[in-house]
Amino acid sequence: MHEEFKKRNQPTTTFNKAGWNVIRKQFHEKIGNDYSDMQFKNKFNRLRLVYREFEKLLKHMGLDMWVDLQN
């Protein structure tokens, strides 16, 4: 996903069609699951929400995930 961001395939808060296609293809090659466009976007968005909640929990506990991972 980082590569697609660097290619400017994420003009807003989400990826454009070209970006989604590349990410889906890479995901399918690595994982083997072939989701429809809507299924894949829903899974991505759900994962993003779970990540944000997890990050809030860590901050509430006084932990900074990125600082802890770097040490």
UniProtKB/TrEMBL annotation:
Membrane-spanning ranges: none
Organism: Nelumbo nucifera (Sacred lotus)
Pfam families on file: Myb_DNA-bind_3 (PF12776)
Protein name per its UniProtKB record: Myb/SANT-like domain-containing protein
Top-level lineage group: Eukaryota
Organism classification: Eukaryota, Viridiplantae, Streptophyta, Embryophyta, Tracheophyta
Domain Myb/SANT-like residues, every copy: 1-63
